[in-house]
Specification:
The structure holds two protein chains of two kinds.
Chain A: H1 4-11, E1 24-30, E2 35-44, E3 47-56, H2 59-72, H3 77-80, H4 85-91, H5 100-121, H6 139-142
Antiparallel strand pairs in A: 1-2, 2-3
Chain B: E1 4-5, H1 16-22, H2 24-27, H3 38-57, E2 65-68, H4 71-85, E3 92-96, H5 101-112, E4 116-120, H6 130-136, E5 141-145, H7 159-168, E6 172-176, H8 188-191, E7 195-199, E8 210-214, H9 229-232, H10 240-255, H11 257-278, E9 282-284, E10 295-300, H12 305-314, E11 317-318, H13 324-327, H14 334-338, H15 343-346, E12 349-353, H16 360-380, H17 382-390
Parallel strand pairs in B: 1-11, 3-4, 3-5, 5-6, 6-7
Antiparallel strand pairs in B: 2-8, 7-8, 9-10, 10-12
Chain lengths: ~150, ~400
């Protein structure tokens, strides 16, 4: 059902935990749907200096969070905002179609964390245009992306 | 790595004696039971021998047992067959919200044809309210289908009282006894059962075989049309080897029922006690006593069931869950929602079902493993630290 990469990141998740005095925190998802992702970032010179996550969800939600933190660590904020859910899926060696929304959640959680940082520091980023961290997640929308 | 199977309600391993019983029917007595030659007649004799052995385990006459390809077919046949055959009487079915999908999806299909279905609520333990059943009965109620034991939370219904109410209301009573058969003593006559679905692979028999008990005089249409097998009621060349295995498994289950039940209950109680003592924020679902002897269903707060199953699997333990992620839909199990659990709690459900080959050591290992994996997943959960912060 899952690739080895997914199982590796699920069983040995990277960058789990919290960052004290984080520069930005983003949380997306809801308990009713069964997945919540929270991402903490530490920013230095407009680069992601440190990143950690906490996730309530299935195996692929945890694996997607873990690999997303690996993809993003050290990137400039501009570059971090360019990371897409497809890159998360590809890095995991693929996800079953019903689990693609987990990768969307990872992308959204990161954006929410950067949004929080930008908001607190009066910064604007092109990659955040039109992003609303409080937007309700609708699984039905996400499945449109799935290629069969 | 140690491997522990705790998913006996999903399926069971076939017992060695059952395999031995089946083997000659693949290669020696392989004939088609409808053939006139000795090859066929030998198979026919085996078939009728199996039928009477299965019938004996539920106190039924031999000619009321019809072999099918399993529980789902039996459920489909009972509902569609009875409703189609009794249109003159009415178009109403009563069932419950916690039935197996073989019943619920068949009811939905019948609704599309114009039949009306009442889905009874259950209480927090998963039992129906007998007064609500009485109130739901109409003059047009043809069939009431209520499962004997629920497959997820293990709750048992008051079958005898239910059948009385159904018959007083002039309707036919069907029960999906797939989880009950082999775990409680069933007597179709005493219990007032008109139709009953049973399955072989839940009682250490082979997959792909089951039966529908149909009391004499019940009007029912065929589901599978074709040849004249099963007294013209269920077409298809009989799966003799499977049926012989089913008969052997049924016999063993019936003879060892007491020992089987007490073994399971002892381990179930050990497992439940161990879990409740070693993990906090956990809820034990289903009825405390009126339940499947081997069923443990618990919800661990702040974590998700699929992640729990994968973590347990990594420790060699096979269980199941009613979380959305394991059901392939976005909602957690309809059974857990029907007993009133909120979505977020239902997402963290775990079903462990004990069987004849489970040992005390298996149970103790599982308790330890669960404690570890629940803690590991909770440390990753943003919901858990909210609670921890609030302490």
């Amino acid at each position: 059902m899952y690739t080895e990469k997914v199982m590796d990141h699920f069983m040995n998740p990277r960058n789990v935990g919290e960052i004290e005095n984080a520069d930005g925190v983003g949380e997306v998802g809801n308990v009713k749907c069964g997945d919540i992702m929270r991402i903490y970032i530490k920013v230095e010179n407009d680069h992601i200096k440190d990143i950690k996550f906490k996730t309530f969800g299935c195996g692929s939600a945890i694996a997607a969070s873990s690999i997303a933190t690996e993809l993003i660590m050290g990137l400039s904020i501009e570059d971090a905002l360019k990371v897409t859910n497809k890159q998360v899926v590809d890095a995991l060696g693929g996800l079953p179609p019903v689990k693609v929304h987990c990768s969307v959640l990872a992308e959204q959680a990161l954006k929410a964390a950067i949004y929080d940082y930008a908001h607190k520091n009066g910064k604007t980023y092109a990659g955040l245009e039109g992003f609303d961290p409080h937007e309700e997640h609708d699984h039905d929308h996400e499945v449109v992306d799935i290629e069969f | 790595m140690r491997k522990i199977y705790l998913d006996y309600s999903a399926t069971t391993p076939v017992k060695e004696e059952v395999v031995q019983e089946m083997l000659p029917y693949f290669t020696e007595t392989f004939g088609n039971a409808s053939s006139i030659h000795s090859f066929g007649q030998d198979a026919k004799r085996a078939l009728e021998n199996a039928r009477s052995r299965v019938a004996a385990t539920v106190g039924a006459a031999s000619d009321t047992i019809y072999f099918t390809a399993g529980g789902s077919e039996s459920d489909n046949w009972a509902l569609k067959g009875v409703m189609h055959a009794n249109k003159a009487k009415g178009n109403h079915i009563i069932t419950t919200k916690i039935e197996h999908h073989a019943i619920l999806h068949t009811c939905e299909a019948l609704e599309k044809e114009g039949f009306e279905v009442t889905y009874l609520d259950v209480d927090a333990y998963g039992q129906i309210d007998l007064e609500a059943l009485k109130a739901a009965m109409r003059p047009t109620t043809v069939l009431v289908s209520i499962m004997y034991i629920n497959n997820e939370i293990g709750t048992m219904q008051k079958i005898e009282e239910i059948s009385k109410i159904v018959h007083e209301g002039g309707a036919i009573f069907h029960t999906d006894a797939v989880q009950a058969y082999g775990n409680v003593k069933i007597d179709v006559g005493t219990f007032g059962i008109d139709l009953m679905s049973i399955s072989s692979h839940k009682i250490y028999g082979p997959k792909g075989v089951g039966a529908l008990y149909i009391k004499k005089g019940i009007r029912i249409h065929n589901l599978i049309e074709g040849g004249a097998q099963e007294r013209k009621r269920r077409a298809g060349t009989e799966n003799i080897a499977g049926i012989m295995g089913f008969a052997k498994a049924a016999e063993i289950a019936d003879q060892n029922l007491e020992a089987h039940v007490s073994h399971l209950i002892a381990l179930r109680e050990r497992l439940v006690k161990g879990i409740l003592a070693s993990v906090d924020y956990v809820k034990y679902n289903g009825h405390p006593t009126e339940r499947h002897p081997g069923n443990v269903n618990v919800c661990f707060e702040f974590i998700e069931g699929e992640a729990l199953l994968l973590s347990l699997n990594a420790k060699g333990i096979g269980g199941s869950s009613g979380s959305a992620c394991t059901s392939g839909s976005l909602d957690p199990s309809h059974v857990l929602l029907a007993i009133g659990l909120p979505h977020e709690i239902a997402h963290g459900s775990l079903r462990l079902t004990i069987g004849d080959f489970t040992s005390e050591e298996d149970v103790d290992y599982t308790i330890e493993a669960l404690k570890e994996v629940v803690q590991k997943l909770r440390m990753m959960s943003p919901l858990y630290d909210r609670v921890q912060g609030g302490k």
